[in-house]
Write a structure and sequence with these properties.
Layout lengths: L1 H28 L1
Length: 30
């Protein structure tokens, strides 16, 4: 159970990082 929660947390962190990268890319290209 603990391991599954850590996995979900890491996936969320990776998704957040990817969204941040996309936002920065849009800002710099705008």
């Amino acid at each position: 159970f603990e391991q599954a929660r850590n996995l979900a947390f890491e996936e969320a962190a990776q998704t957040r990082d990817r969204i941040t990268e996309l936002k920065q890319a849009m800002i710099s290209s705008a």
